[in-house]
Amino acid sequence: MEDRANPLESVPADTSSSTRDGLDRSAIYDVDSSDPRQMLVDRSGIDDADVRQITELMKALGALREAEQRLSEASRRYMQLNETDMRALHYLIVCTHREIIATPGGIAQHLSISSASTTKLLDRLERGGHIVRAAHPTDRRALAITISPETHRAAMETVGRQQAKRFNAAARLSSSEREVVIRFLRDMTDEITLRDEAWASDAAHAQA
What average pLDDT score do residues 23-40 get? Predict the structure, then answer.
């Protein structure tokens, strides 16, 4: 793994301000462009300056999501693994750092996948030399799963180091600014969390 190319070299920065069709990229996150008739959001009580500022906020969130997606794609290419594999390895890294014994059951619960899918995942990771299966030290019914030293080192020194740069941005904020951001992100998460929406149900998806 040490001979792999820089995972970010193959991901070109998106510096264009418009799409091939001539639509300015910023319009994608412009609330007036997405919802001109206010069918989704009633903006009658919000002045134009606030709407423009909220639009800038949505653009910033969109740019963050796009940067995270490019980083995630580069990470998967570098490690030659899929998204679920990467999440499993991250789980194993955290377990290692916290001196917690990872088990197939714990991995399945973390990833929200079945036991059968977990077995296939572990088989795949073991064949690639990414994990080691061993007898659990206290539970004879379980296995202990650890990440291999080579994969641990490769992930930490490349993908992990890039992902950790988020900390720098948070550290540049004051304590009160971080509280505002935390409250905003939690509030937005609550707003978009799926609950009883009929269109998102399994039955509706099956009919599509």
Answer: 85
At 7, is the pLDDT very low, low, confident or very high (cuts 50, 70, 90)? very low
What's the rounded Cα separation, in Å, for the pair 83 and 43? Answer: 38
- Coil, strand or helix at 44: coil
Average pLDDT over residues 177-185: 98
Instruction: Provide the pLDDT for residue 31.
Output: 87
Predicted model pTM = 0.76
CA-closest candidate to residue 87, choices 65, 112, 61: 112
Torsion region of 38: left, alpha or beta (phi above 0 gives left; psi -120 to 50 gives alpha): left
Q: Which tokens hold the place of 88?
A: 């499993």
**In this structure, which long-range contacts are made by residues 155-164, counting pairs with CB atoms below 8 Å and at least 24 apart in sequence?**
155/79, 155/89, 155/90, 155/93, 156/93, 158/4, 158/7, 158/75, 158/78, 159/7, 159/75, 159/78, 159/79, 159/86, 160/93, 162/7, 162/8, 162/71, 162/75, 163/71, 163/75
Contacts of 108 (CB under 8 A, 6+ apart): 114, 115, 117, 118
- Amino acid 61 reads L
- Decide if pLDDT at 203 tops 70: no
| pLDDT of 4 strictly over 70 | no
